[in-house]
Request: fold
Amino acid sequence: MAVTRTFSIIKPDATRRNLTGAVTKMLEEAGLRVVASKRIQMTREQAEGFYGVHRERPFFNDLVEFMISGPVVVQVLEGEDAVTRNRDVMGATNPANAEPGTIRKELAESIEANTVHGSDSEENAKIEIDFFFKPEEIVG
Reply:
């Protein structure tokens, strides 16, 4: 397996509950290394742009409102098969369906407030990383 990168967001429900460290610990224990991280207050424009692929979906406006409701932590993660590894440790989108020991099973409040976002492919990871980070900010 090759070392690759993926993108992660620790969402407002987690930052509000001071779980940034707990989430990062679970990511690191899963073999991922944080090579870039910053806490930001996402603007409406950023949230609408980032989640633009969902613009026509009925949940789009609620998702944007949620993502701008508080600070988030955007991260670049590195490790062997990083996208898959991150998705495995995150768990199913709906915490009720997530495996024990995953971030969403252990820390999420609901399917909407599910603590983390992670890229679903290497191609999307590159797009998502480039959306929030300049190359010189990634110092792995």
User: Anything to note?
Assistant: The chain has a mean pLDDT of 97. Strands lie at 3-10, 33-40, 72-80, 116-118.
